[in-house]
């Protein structure tokens, strides 16, 4: 049995690129430490969402406490704080890493170091964590551990001479990993004082018990019945239960320094719990919170609308339920002339948008469409007012705009050197600036680019994968706002502006984007009995146009032979009728047209 001893606690995280075997290694560790019996074991045990299992990615982090009797005869408490791997969730990863003293860096022996691994390793290095390199999938015929060791040393700068060679699938080398965690990862430091400080690194909503808060105790002791306070929101709660994950919730008497677990305090609103916040006692609590806390701000915005307007209430309920377990999702109601009532949602990035969209369709069985994603621009007006705008409908009067700033990101791209030309062409097309090129090993490149965020949120990843035949990987982080020539592109159908198609674009891209949308609309809007012009306009200036020709009816079919004046009279009558129809006629744009235009971007 484990007797509490700070020196026998090990807290660690696993850093890996998508599909490098993070969840599989976690499964083997759970088996080796008998935390999960072989009868209950299933693949990707810690990934609970169906979507996570299907895509092989971790979206929602889950901690787990394991007890392991080492070769020295002592029993250790090992806390694995699982993290999402994707760039969109980098703040959550940084908070989870703050709760650890070390990290296992897993690299696939066949693929080598990838861009995403790099970003998360830098987060770990910044927090002074002990990093243990592990090379996975050594049982595969294509594996090349020596090449991967050299890559780890040259790219990341960590000594990889003693990197563990394992195969998480077959179980090779797993016991060595456990011994290495015990010998290589430092125990938590002795706390300087007895005042309670707990770091919140995640939370989820339980329908019966309210918000379950995941915490790592830095100092002091937290137990049932304590009156606690959240330091950022200053709200107080009575603790009903504290416990650990092993791997399911297991109530305990108390959590002491260095331990990881959960607490329940009848918290009804998820907004009261902020990731990265510090928990202390209401009486004689800490005065200074733990460092590194910041509010998560959405990066990408998009409108979500029900295809059938009667589903509006169901969509509202579904978004409220999703928000309970996803504090980073921002939702506000909006309406559009073309699409009816819907919601404007803010996301951490494109993967986050995709996940929310898929969960709404699958878990709640809703038919929805999204408008094209946009970023937040800063408009400074001539009177000094600064507006943050993500929706073309809020675009201010151009005469009052002094200047506009757009967000830029720093992006690292890793790919084989054969594809340098193709990547540079893609970079130029996306208004990128190449700032640094490094050669890694004999045939890999690490490129550092700067891009405007709005250029990469729609299709950059797909294009990068296609020009590098799937070998390229990229990762980005927000850098700063810079001046940009951003204008509103309006689409008019039969002289009427359609707000759902309007976009904010850079001036250099306006014409090509306008042409693409007009061309697509010409294909998808059915013919009417009159000519329908489709125009792309900036202000009053038309920059692109397509015309849908009228359905024609042969009014002179019954006149055979005879005088031409009879036919002329009928043609004139038809012309007048068409003119009148055009004045009162309405063009109904089918729902499929909206979907097609979003794909045309």
Explain what this protein looks like in three dimensions:
There is one protein chain. This protein has 601 residues and is an alpha+beta fold. The protein folds into 5 domains: 6-184, P-loop containing nucleotide triphosphate hydrolases (Rossmann fold), CATH 3.40.50.300; 197-281, Translation factors (Elongation Factor Tu (Ef-tu), domain 3); 300-371, Alpha-Beta Plaits (2-Layer Sandwich), CATH 3.30.70.870; 378-483, Alpha-Beta Plaits; 488-600, Elongation factor 4, C-terminal domain (Alpha-Beta Plaits), CATH 3.30.70. The chain contains 14 helices and 32 strands. The protein has an 8-stranded antiparallel β-sheet with strand order 11-10-16-7-8-15-12-13. Strands 2-3-1-4-5-6 form a 6-stranded mixed β-sheet, with helices on both faces. Strands 22, 23, 24, 25, 26 and 27 form a 6-stranded antiparallel β-sheet that branches. A hairpin with a 2-residue loop joins strand 28 and strand 29 (496-497). Helix 12 packs antiparallel against helix 14. The protein is elongated. The model has no long low-confidence stretch (mean pLDDT 78).
Quick structural gist:
Helices cover 27% and strands 32% of the residues. The protein is an alpha+beta fold.
Mean pLDDT: 78
Beta-strand percentage range: 25-35%
Tally of individual helices: 14
Broad shape: elongated
Question: How do the helices and strands line up, and which of them pair or pack?
Answer:
Elements lengths: L8 E7 L6 H11 L17 H6 L7 E7 L5 E7 L8 H9 L3 E7 L6 H12 L3 E7 L8 H12 L7 E2 L8 H11 L12 E10 L3 E10 L2 E2 L3 E4 L5 E3 L2 E5 L3 E4 L1 E2 L4 E5 L13 E4 L18 E7 L5 H14 L4 E7 L3 E8 L2 H14 L4 E3 L3 E2 L1 E5 L4 E4 L11 E16 L3 H10 L3 E8 L3 E9 H4 L3 H8 L5 E11 L2 E8 L2 E2 L5 E4 H18 L7 E7 L2 E8 L15 H21 L6 H10 L1
Parallel strand pairs: 1-3, 1-4, 4-5, 5-6
Antiparallel strand pairs: 2-3, 7-8, 7-16, 8-15, 9-14, 10-11, 10-16, 12-13, 12-15, 17-19, 17-20, 17-21, 18-19, 22-23, 22-24, 24-26, 24-27, 25-26, 28-29, 28-30, 28-31, 31-32
Helix pairs in contact: 12-14
């Amino acid at each position: 049995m484990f007797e509490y001893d700070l020196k026998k606690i090990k807290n660690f995280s696993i850093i890996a690129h998508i599909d490098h075997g993070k969840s599989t290694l976690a499964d083997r560790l759970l088996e080796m430490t008998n935390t999960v019996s072989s009868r209950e074991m299933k693949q990707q045990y810690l990934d609970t969402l169906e979507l996570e299992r299907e895509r092989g990615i971790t979206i929602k982090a889950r901690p787990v406490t394991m007890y392991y009797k080492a070769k020295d005869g002592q029993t250790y408490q090992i806390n694995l704080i699982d993290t999402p791997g994707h760039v969109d969730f980098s703040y959550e990863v940084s908070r989870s890493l703050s709760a650890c003293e070390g990290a296992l860096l897993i690299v696939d022996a066949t693929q080598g170091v990838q861009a995403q691994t790099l970003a998360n390793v830098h987060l770990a290095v910044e927090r002074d964590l002990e990093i243990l390199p592990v090379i996975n999938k050594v049982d595969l015929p294509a594996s090349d551990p020596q090449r991967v060791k050299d890559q780890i040393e040259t790219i990341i700068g960590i000594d990889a001479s003693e990197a563990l060679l394992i195969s998480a699938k077959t179980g090779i080398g797993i016991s060595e990993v456990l011994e290495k965690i015990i010998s290589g990862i430092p125990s938590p430091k002795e706390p300087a004082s007895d005042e309670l400080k707990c770091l919140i690194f995640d939370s989820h909503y339980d329908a019966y018990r309210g918000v379950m808060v995941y915490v790592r105790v830095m100092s002091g002791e937290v137990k049932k019945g304590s009156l606690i306070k959240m330091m950022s929101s200053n709200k107080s709660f009575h603790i009903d239960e504290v416990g650990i994950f092993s791997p399911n919730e297991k109530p305990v008497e108390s959590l002491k320094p260095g331990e990881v677990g959960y607490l329940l305090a009848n918290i009804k609103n998820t907004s009261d719990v902020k990731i990265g916040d510090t928990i202390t006692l209401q009486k004689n609590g800490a005065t200074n919170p733990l460092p590194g806390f910041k509010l998560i701000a959405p990066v990408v915005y998009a409108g979500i609308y029900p295809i059938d307007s009667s589903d509006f209430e169901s969509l509202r309920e579904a978004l409220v339920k999703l928000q309970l377990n996803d504090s980073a999702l921002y939702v506000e109601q909006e309406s559009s002339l073309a699409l009816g009532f819907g919601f404007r949602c803010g996301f951490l990035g494109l993967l986050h948008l995709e996940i929310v969209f898929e969960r709404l369709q699958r878990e709640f069985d809703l038919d929805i469409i999204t408008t094209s994603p946009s970023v937040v621009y800063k408009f400074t007006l001539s009177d000094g007012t600064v507006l943050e705008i993500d929706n073309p409908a809020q675009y201010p009067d151009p005469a009052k705009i002094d200047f506009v700033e757009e967000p830029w990101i720093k992006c690292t791209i890793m790919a084989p050197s054969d594809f340098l030309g193709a990547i540079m062409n893609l970079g130029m097309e996306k208004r990128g600036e190449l700032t640094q090129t490094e050669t890694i090993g004999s045939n890999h490149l690490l490129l550092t680019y700067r891009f405007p965020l709005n250029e990469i949120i729609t299709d950059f990843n797909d294009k990068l994968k296609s020009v590098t035949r799937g070998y390229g990987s990229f990762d980005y982080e927000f850098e700063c706002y810079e001046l940009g020539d951003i204008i509103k592109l309006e689409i008019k159908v039969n002289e009427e502006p359609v707000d759902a198609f309007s976009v904010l674009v850079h001036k250099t891209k306006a014409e090509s984007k306008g042409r693409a949308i007009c061309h697509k609309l010409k294909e998808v809007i059915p013919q009417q009995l009159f000519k329908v012009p489709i125009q792309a306009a900036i202000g009053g200036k038309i920059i692109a146009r397509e015309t849908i020709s009228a359905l024609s009816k042969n009014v002179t079919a019954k006149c055979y032979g005879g005088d031409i004046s009879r036919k002329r009279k009928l043609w004139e009558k038809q012309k007048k009728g068409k003119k009148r129809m055009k004045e009162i006629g309405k063009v109904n744009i089918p729902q499929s047209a909206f979907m097609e235009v979003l794909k045309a971007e």
